[in-house]
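Consortium newsletter contribution from the modelling node. Members have asked for a concrete example of what our holo predictions look like. Here is one, prepared for the zinc ion complex that several groups have been discussing at recent meetings.
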Amino acid sequence: MGYSKLKIPKICAHCSKPFEAKTVITRFCSRECGQKAGNAKKKNTRREVKQQELIARIPSNRPYISIAEAVLLFGISRDTIYRLVRMGKIPAINLGERLTRISRAHIETMFAPLTVVPATPEKQSGKMDYSQAECYAIGEITEKFGISPSTVSNAIRRNSIPKKQIGKFVYVPKIEIDKIFTNRK
Ligand SMILES: [Zn+2]
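And here is the predicted structure:
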């Protein structure tokens, strides 16, 4: 029996239809699906490049930024931003309809910009196997538990909580922080 007669039941990685593959590494039901998947990947890469270009164009010394710029820079939703503005957590100025400008410094203390590339990791204690999504920035902890940044720092030191510095932001695992402060609340 030659390889050409092999029939391996698989699910197409593009259209999700079941098909019979001739080799174990076949991922798509047809040449067409393979091409479409390739195009979609290219499109994604192009979108990311475009996004980086837009981010690069936002001057870093402007104290107030637009909602759209904040979405780009910090990877958070418009809804989240508007909610924080309504709650008074982020100072905003209104230059007219659809022309809200918000304080970049305030939003930076809560969220790290997406553009920061992990620099050489500084002062790490313990091992840090957590993704950014599994971590709090210090500002998020002070917000969530209503405690001061120095209380947070002390707790991190005392409990040898692993931390990760990205740019000027320090990240610590949510799970460790929740353990310490949830009961206190
Ligand atoms: Zn397919």
